[in-house]
Amino acid sequence: MIENIIRVWDKYWILFIQGLGITLMLSLVTVVAGCILGFLISLLRMSRLRIFHFRPLNAIAGIYVEVIRGTPILLQLYFFYFLLPEMLPFLNPSKIVCCTFALCLNSAAYVSEVIRAGIQAVDKGQTEAARSLGLNQKQTMMHVVLPQAVKNILPALCNEFVTMIKETSLASTFFVGELMTVYRTISGALFLTIEPLIIVGIIYFIVTFTLSKGVLFMEKKMSASAA
Fold first, then answer.
1. Mind listing the pLDDT tens digit for each residue in 205-216?
2. Predicted structure pTM score
């Protein structure tokens, strides 16, 4: 088996690297877009922010988060894979665009809860002190609350990136070119199942293990600076 693993890697290592690149690209785009959308959703769900306290929008944001978190991500991938081309026939979105869109919406729902929890974890006394100094709602949020909330939010967002690297494997259902798609392609070409799967597993483990250790190191640094 080891000989076969070495042979598969030696012959197809470029495909594995390309698959890893697409996996990381999908994950990065998903998390960045998810952070932007998740931030807006988290503000909509925080009723104490008067400028965003519009009940219909609050309700829609809440329903969106509950639906996304309450359904499997594979179902969401299928849904948008078939829905987007019908909704936007003039754009003719590709498979990778449809999958990325679904992953972004999924990530946004989870990120919004992370951001909301991070903001709410900031002592309310900080907000009251800022308002007493004459800062308005927006200034208080941007200059007082968010800088303190970042320390609570950033590690969780980094963990979301690590999680998304693994969840992009579900996009292989639609052959978008990421690591699991590469596995399925090589497995079909060589009629080997275990060997390419082991290589893909090793790649996933190395990437996620390295990133997880980096997140842990960052958390320790942030805790030390806070102390």
1. 999 999 999 888
2. 0.85
Query: What are the C-alpha distances in Å from 190 to residues 12, 131, 132, 184?
Result: 11, 67, 70, 10
Instruction: List Cβ neighbours of 26 (8 Å cut-off, separation of 6 or more).
Output: 96, 99, 100, 103, 164, 168, 171, 176, 178
Q: How far apart are CA 159 and CA 140, in angstroms?
A: 28
Q: Tokens standing for 65?
A: 């988060």
- Cα separation, 200 vs 198, in Å, equals 5
Q: List the domain boundaries for the chain.
A: 2-226
Q: Is 56 exposed, middle or buried (0-12, 13-18, 19+ CB in 10 A)?
A: exposed
Q: Please provide the CATH number assigned to the domain covering 2-226.
A: 1.10.3720.10
DSSP collapsed to 3 states, 27-44: HHHHHHHHHHHHHHHHHH
